[in-house]
Design a protein that fits this description.
The protein has 350 residues and is an alpha/beta fold. Helix content is 45%, strand content 12%. The structure holds S-adenosylmethionine and iron/sulfur cluster (SF4).
Length: 350
């Protein structure tokens, strides 16, 4: 085992309470009590990939498919921005109808709608480096692409033949093109061992991520992983705390998967170092169809009312909802300048 790996293995073996307390103090020290609120838009559930774990996989014939129109997306952005949201996360499957040209036009339209002030995060899978470059040029700020598991053989098997190497190449391309970078993994995938858990953490640290998204794997009956055991709350909390200690500045969301599988899942992640929440602002009519896994927390309230409830709930937890952009603290001034130039260019074009 490499020195770094041995250190991480020791970190993971520490008593949970101790690990969580240390991660929580570090979170308070580096990030304060604010929790960044990002508006999540699940804009298409169509996907050409066949990841074994995911309900959106192309081979799942039981799922009713949808793709939002630009107008529907912009309406949600308008409502969220009016309420003060400073980041919109556009997540979807690898949908060929959403060409890079179309995504670029959408990003530009969101920038115009929000007077260049809101950050746009994309999460729509592997694309070419040239595509990523065009998206940055149009004003996209951040990209989320989980590596899912750091075990190359497991990755290739679970992702229908797509190699970990290809995923990591995409992450490298995203970083090189100037995106604020998010990645992460699922906790408790079938085949995960202690060595894989250590490798997952080590890879997050080595990638020096700006954002780290993790959540428990949840077995979906409409996938080849039906009937497998799902990830546990304890493992998810342990990994969250370890990540906070390894990446003190990273923005770490308390994810939907944790909230869907365990009633206090998001709260437990917030108490173990997480500092971001991503409420769903997708139009209500579509929410039930973004079914990655069963029991997905598809809150049936209007997204904006949800924001009020979240703010009140965070206050009960001694935390504070922060609707600002919440750029990564590890980003440099140069990037900020680049972002400002991008917004200016977009607005000038209209
Ligand atoms: N298609 C893009 C991608 O794969 O990066 C973005 C959308 S994908 C649905 C978002 C994330 O959902 C994946 O990165 C994966 O970690 C998570 N996910 C998919 N199926 C899941 C499951 N059964 N349990 C928990 N998380 C799951
Ligand atoms: Fe498609 Fe992403 Fe689901 Fe894989 S995880 S099937 S790429 S939506």
């Amino acid at each position: 085992m490499k020195t770094g790996s041995a250190e991480i293995a020791r970190l993971l073996a520490r008593p949970l309470e101790e690990l969580v307390a240390e991660a929580d103090s570090l979170r308070r020290l580096r990030h304060g009590d604010g929790v960044w609120i990002r508006g999540l838009l699940e804009f298409t559930n169509r996907c050409t990939c066949n990841c074994l774990y995911c309900g959106l996989r192309a081979a799942n014939g039981r799922l009713g498919r949808y793709s939002l129109t630009e107008e529907e997306i912009l309406l949600s952005v308008r409502a969220g921005f009016a309420r003060g949201l400073g980041t919109f996360v556009l997540q979807g499957g690898e949908d060929p109808d959403w060409t890079t040209d179309r995504l670029c036009r959408l990003v530009e339209a969101i920038k115009v709608e929000t007077e260049g002030r809101a950050a746009v995060t994309l999460s729509c899978g592997i694309k070419s480096r040239g595509d990523y470059r065009r998206l940055v040029a149009c004003g996209a700020d951040r990209y989320l692409l989980r590596f899912e598991t750091a075990d190359p053989a497991l990755h290739e098997r679970l992702r229908g033949g797509i190699s970990l190497r290809r995923r990591l190449q995409a992450l490298d391309d995203l970083r090189e093109e100037g995106f604020e970078l998010g990645s992460g993994f699922m906790v408790g995938l079938p085949g995960e061992t202690e060595a894989v858990r250590v490798a997952n953490l080590e890879l997050c640290r080595d990638l020096a991520l700006d954002m780290v998204g993790i959540g428990p794997f949840i077995a979906n009956p409409d996938t080849p992983l039906a009937g497998e055991a799902s990830g546990t709350l304890e493992a998810t909390v342990r990994m969250t705390a370890a990540l906070r200690l390894l990446l003190p500045d990273a923005n770490i969301p308390a994810t939907t998967a944790a909230g869907s599988l365990f009633s206090q899942g998001r709260e437990a992640m917030l108490g173990a170092g997480a500092n971001v929440l991503m409420p769903n602002v997708t139009p209500l009519a579509y929410r039930e169809r973004y079914l990655l896994y069963p029991g997905k927390d598809t809150i049936t309230q209007d997204g904006i009312q949800e924001l009020e409830a979240i703010a009140a709930h965070l206050e009960e937890l001694g935390r504070r909802a922060d609707l600002g952009r919440g750029d990564s603290p590890s980003r440099t001034r140069t990037n900020k300048k680049q972002m400002d130039q991008n917004s200016k260019k977009t607005i000038e074009k209209t």
